[in-house]
Structures are given as structure tokens and as C-alpha cells.
Specification:
- The chain is of the alpha+beta class.
- The protein has two domains: 1-36; 42-169, Beta Barrel (OB fold (Dihydrolipoamide Acetyltransferase, E2P)), CATH 2.40.50.
- Helices cover 29% and strands 30% of the residues.
- The protein has helices spanning 2-36, 42-47, 79-83, 103-106, and strands at 55-64, 73-76, 90-93, 109-118, 130-139, 150-156, 162-169.
- β1 (55-64) and β2 (73-76) form a beta hairpin.
- It starts with a helix and ends in a 5-residue tail after the last strand.
Length: 174
């Protein structure tokens, strides 16, 4: 009789302990996701489009900017994805009209961009969603090699005004 009582007490303690561990892991994962929701990699965004649908996010990638007013930009995971036009590794970006005069400064550069993400099948289901209502776009500096060594931040106001700040110079002689 005592043996059964100890066995049931042991099983009960084990169940309570495992429940506590599961609760702690779920809570930690929930807190981690809440802290990470706004700032994420483009790979995470493309893999989890429904999770981030209709949310303001910021992400980075290689930007192919429009050459005319009638095209939307495309944000690729990598420069090679742009070169080989692998659009499943990209999202469309609706740039504000005020940013179009600066297209030569942002075209074919790595950028960090903030805006409202939509996972809808927008452009003939070619891409994995699109960003609109862009509030900030930062051109990232090249830390190694022969790329551009200055970072440029474009802040886009709700009325469409674009403010450009060149904030960082990296490289020889700086």
C-alpha cells in the first residue's frame, strides 16, 4: 500500500514539474516573440508571412528601386537573388513618391526599411508579400570591400515629406 502511495506521489510530482517546465518555456517563447515582432530578418518575414500580416515591421535586404514612377521596388534577401530575379526570395515595396528623386542613392544597395507588411497575394503571387506606408529607409554602409562607405537615413513623414540624413562614414581616411 505504501509503495503505491509513493508511486502516485512521485508521478504527481513529476507531472507538476513537467507542467511547470512547459509553462516556463511557453512564457519565455511568448516574451521573446513579443520583443522580436518589429525587428526581423527578411527570411523570417518570408517564411512567416501570415504571422506578420498587417503589422508594422522593419527588415533588411538588397533593394532594387524603380526606374520610373510606375514601378514598385523589390526587396531581395541577397544581391544574387536580384541578379537572378528569384522573386520568391523577395517582397515588393511601395516607396513614397517623395523618395523617388533619391532612387539613384538607394538602388542596388542594402537597406534597412520600416513599414506596414501585407501578406496578401498582391502581385500575381510572384513575391511573398509587400511593404507599404514606409516610415524609414536606411542605406547601409559597406564595412568591407569597395562598396559605399556612408549610411544614409531617409525619414518619411505622414504628409509625404522626406528628410535625408547622412550619418556615418566608414573607411580609409575617416
Amino acid at each position: 500500500m505504501k509503495m503505491r502511495l509513493f508511486l502516485w506521489a512521485g508521478i504527481t510530482c513529476l507531472c507538476v514539474f513537467l507542467s511547470f517546465i512547459v509553462f516556463v518555456l511557453i512564457d519565455r517563447n511568448r516574451r521573446y516573440r513579443a520583443a522580436d515582432d518589429g525587428d526581423l530578418s527578411l527570411v523570417s518575414l518570408i517564411c512567416n508571412t501570415k504571422t506578420y500580416d498587417k503589422k508594422v515591421i522593419s527588415t533588411g535586404g538588397f533593394l532594387h528601386a524603380p526606374v520610373s514612377d510606375f514601378q514598385d521596388a523589390i526587396l531581395y534577401i541577397h544581391e544574387d537573388d536580384c541578379r537572378y530575379d528569384i522573386q520568391k526570395n523577395a517582397i515588393f515595396v511601395r516607396l513614397p513618391r517623395g523618395l523617388l528623386p533619391s532612387a539613384c542613392q538607394i538602388n542596388h544597395r542594402y537597406v534597412w526599411i520600416e513599414g506596414l507588411f501585407s501578406a496578401s497575394d498582391w502581385h500575381r503571387n510572384v513575391n511573398s508579400g509587400f511593404l507599404s506606408e514606409i516610415s524609414k529607409l536606411s542605406v547601409l554602409p559597406c564595412l568591407f570591400g569597395n562598396g559605399p562607405t556612408n549610411a544614409i537615413i531617409f525619414s518619411i513623414h505622414s504628409d509625404g515629406r522626406v528628410i535625408e540624413n547622412e550619418c556615418l562614414k566608414i573607411g580609409p581616411g575617416n
